[in-house]
Each structure stands twice: as C-alpha cells, then as structure tokens.
C-alpha cells in the first residue's frame, strides 16, 4: 500500500504525517491537541480557551456517561480476593469465556460454548488477531470506507492487501454490495462489517445483514463482524448480531466491554467464532487459533475474573439510561448541525457514538480540505474534531457525540462553531441577523 505524506500548514506551523496505511485516529488527535497547546502557549491564562474534544470515542471523558457500580465492585472484589494475581490461560479464564458465550448466545438461534470464545486486550487486539490468523501470501481483505483505520494498519503489518468497498450515505450508510462483488476474488480472506457503525452511526437491518451474509457465502469468504458498539442502538433499527447468520457464512465476532459498559480503559475484549456449521472447529483451524493466542497476553486476570458478575448483575436500567443519553446527545448534534451552513449530515445516527458529516468547502474561505478545517478549528477555537481523511473519507468530519450536552452545544452551536464559520466566511449572515 502507498503511504502519502500530507503537509498541513497552520499559520507558522507545518505538520506532516503519513496517511493511508500508517494513519491512526490517536495519532492525528495527538497532532490536533499539539496545535491547541502551541496556540494556548502563546496566550495568557485569561485568553486561553478550554479544550472541547469531540474526536475520541471515549465516553468516560464525560460525566454524562457514568459506568455502573456493579462493574467497579466486581473488579474490586476480584482483586481483593487474592485469587487472581497469576497468569490466566492464554485463551482467557474459563468462567469469563463461559459468561461471554452465554451473553452472546442470548441473541443467537444457537448456543455458543466457551471453546468459541477467546479473551483479548480490547477489541483492538481482536482486530489484529483476526487479520493475523487470515494472513497468507497474496491475501486481500475487504474493508468499509469510511471505516476504522486499525484494520488497515494491521493489514499493512501483515502484508495483506486492503480493498475498500463503499458505504452509501444516501442509503443510511448501507454496504454497496455491488462493489463487494466487483472487489472480491479467490484471494479474498474476509469481509469486514462494523455494526453499529463507527464512524457513521448506522445500524443495519436484519434484511441488509442477511444480504451481506449471502453475498459473502457466494464469494466464498468469511465475515469479520466488529460489534464493539453492540446493543448501542437508539434509532428505528434494533441491533442484530451478524452471528445470527452464522449458518449461512462463518462469522468472527469481535467485541468488548468497553462501550456498552463504559469501561474502555479496562481493555477487556473478545474474539468469537460464531459458526454453528463448524468451519472454525476443524482441528487445524482450532490448533492455529490456540497457538496464536499462546503468543499473546490477555487482559489482567482479576478483570477477567470479574466478567461473569459484570455481565449477569448489570441492571437493564443502566443500559437504557446509556441509550437514552446517546439518543439525546445525537439529537443535539443533528439540531445544531442544521444551523451550520458549511456542514451537512446525510442521515441521522441510529447507534454507536459517532456520526459523519460532510463539509461544503465552497462556503469556507482559506480552507483546503477536511484536515485543514480541523487543524484551524483546533487552533482558533480549541475544538477537536476528527478529519474524515483519518477514516477514509476526504472532506468529511467525524463527530463523537458521547459527550456532555453542554460541551456539544458549545462546540457546535452558534456560541462557538458559527463564530468559527464567521471567522472563515466573513460575509456569511446568520439567521438571527
């Protein structure tokens, strides 16, 4: 894959970073924060502005999204028991694997077992495991555009060719199935689906997921289902796990506690073979998976030991509150965006914690692209938003709405972002004028 060097000129600043195969969300957000820091260093304390970050999908940064006491108590009790200071089995503690298998089976037409579940350090490690296990000479993998760049980065390290299929904004970010048909060949090892969607906030219907499964079967490939935002659906479409269609096509289900339980820093994820037909239970396949996990270190043993209690004792009211809060903050985003002339949203988010909005560069003076927009926004207004280039869609931006409502309004409302628009577009007149 080609690495593109992009120069970003911001006043006297000149940042360079490598895009495509080497880009990371954390990397570009770090550059944006440096831009804010350099700008504030040139001001006195009275002039410095507080930083509002809508760039990172970390709900713990907001008091509006607390976790539940059950999670904290379960981990504390596990640690204080003194029973879990040693190494866990490389596949993960049996009680944790059993609990995850039962939790996921609740939404499936078949039962998973502990043998189907492997514990990982967050969903990020599960992503890397899935790509590493499928890598072979000449292999290619189909990734959504826009998507999550860790897949591309992992594929680059494994020398797996990446082929991007498009998500269609005019159809609620559905998969362009025709492009998948055109891209796949005999060397295609997997089709990656992210549902609920990051970065788009989409939630796929049962019917659309079924069509994806049948397309993958016809092409002779498996599906990697990234469900790190599983169950975080608040729109018209309920969350349907891809594993429901495991009898049609083998599915690798990736997930974690991170988002639904609001504990991303605990790094407790899973890699699951959702495959009632038994493709992944062939002796050589099982041996390959187990041997690869022998190379890895999983999450802390005492956190694994807390998983059964976390899953079984978290009350439904906690999940409902999280969903209600995400619906509320997504509504705020959509309402505020309507009043910003240079930004438009093709559809309202249905789930996850982020959405993609398109920039109208013709309404902006002295803005060359989405990267330039985000760096100038960071420098002038101390607001951090992720440029769409970081997730594969140039001249769009990703807004994370898992934030305090007041911060969202300040960042997106007339009091801040329209002030920024006026900075770039001196002749624009607001509705109030």
Automatic annotation (TrEMBL):
N6-(pyridoxal phosphate)lysine occurs at which residues? 259
A GO molecular function held by the record: pyridoxal phosphate binding
Q: Name one GO biological process term.
A: L-tyrosine catabolic process
Family in the record:
Belongs to the class-I pyridoxal-phosphate-dependent aminotransferase family.
Recite the lineage of the species: Eukaryota, Viridiplantae, Streptophyta, Embryophyta, Tracheophyta
Per the entry, which co-factors are needed?
pyridoxal 5'-phosphate
Supply the Gene3D superfamilies for this chain. Aspartate Aminotransferase, domain 1, Type I PLP-dependent aspartate aminotransferase-like (Major domain)
Task: List the Pfam families hit by this protein, alphabetically.
Answer: Aminotran_1_2 (PF00155)
Q: What is this protein called?
A: Aminotransferase class I/classII large domain-containing protein
Query: For the Aminotransferase class I/classII large domain, which residue ranges apply?
Result: 50-412
- InterPro entries noted in UniProt: Aminotransferase_I/II_large (IPR004839), PyrdxlP-dep_Trfase (IPR015424), PyrdxlP-dep_Trfase_major (IPR015421), PyrdxlP-dep_Trfase_small (IPR015422), TyrNic_aminoTrfase (IPR005958)
Q: Which domain of life is it from?
A: Eukaryota
Q: Which UniProt keywords apply?
A: Aminotransferase, Pyridoxal phosphate, Transferase
């Amino acid at each position: 894959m080609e690495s593109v060097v992009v120069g970003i000129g911001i006043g006297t600043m000149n940042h360079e970073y490598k895009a495509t195969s080497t880009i990371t969300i954390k990397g570009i957000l770090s550059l944006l924060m440096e831009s804010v820091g350099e700008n504030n260093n040139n001001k006195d304390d009275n002039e410095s502005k507080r930083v509002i970050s809508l760039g990172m999908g970390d709900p713990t940064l907001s008091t509006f999204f607390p976790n539940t006491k059950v999670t904290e108590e379960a981990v504390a009790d596990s640690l204080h028991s003194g029973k879990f200071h040693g190494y866990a089995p490389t596949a993960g503690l049996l009680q944790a694997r059993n609990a995850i298998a039962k939790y996921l089976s609740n939404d499936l037409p078949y039962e998973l077992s502990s043998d189907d579940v492997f514990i990982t350090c967050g969903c990020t490690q599960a992503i890397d495991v899935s790509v590493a296990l499928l890598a072979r000479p000449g292999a290619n993998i189909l990734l959504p555009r826009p998507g999550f760049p860790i897949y591309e980065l992992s594929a680059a390290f494994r020398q797996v060719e990446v082929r991007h299929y498009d998500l269609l904004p005019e159809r609620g970010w559905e998969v362009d199935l025709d492009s998948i048909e055109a891209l796949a060949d005999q060397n295609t090892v997997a089709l990656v689906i992210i549902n609920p969607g990051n970065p788009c906030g989409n939630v796929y219907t049962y019917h659309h997921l079924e069509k994806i499964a049948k397309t993958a079967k016809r092409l002779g490939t498996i599906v990697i289902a990234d469900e790190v935002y599983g169950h975080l659906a608040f729109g018209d479409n309920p969350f349907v796990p891809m594993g429901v269609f495991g009898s049609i096509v083998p599915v690798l289900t990736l997930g974690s506690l991170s988002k639904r339980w609001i504990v991303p820093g605990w790094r407790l994820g899973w890699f699951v073979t959702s495959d009632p037909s038994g493709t992944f239970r062939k002796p050589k396949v099982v041996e390959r998976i187990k041997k690869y996990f022998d190379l890895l270190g999983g999450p802390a043993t005492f956190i694994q030991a807390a998983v059964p209690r976390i899953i079984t004792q978290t009350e439904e009211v906690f999940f409902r509150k999280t969903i209600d809060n995400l619906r509320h903050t997504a509504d705020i985003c959509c309402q505020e965006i309507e009043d910003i002339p240079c930004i438009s949203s093709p559809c309202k988010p249905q789930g996850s914690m982020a959405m993609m909005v398109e920039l109208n560069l013709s309404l902006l003076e002295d803005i060359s692209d989405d990267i330039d927009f985000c760096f100038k926004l960071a420098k002038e207004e101390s607001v951090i938003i992720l440029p769409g280039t970081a997730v594969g869609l140039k001249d769009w931006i990703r807004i994370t709405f898992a934030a305090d409502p007041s911060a969202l309004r300040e960042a997106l409302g007339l009091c801040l972002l329209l002030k920024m628009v006026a900075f770039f577009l001196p002749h624009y007149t607001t509705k109030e004028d």
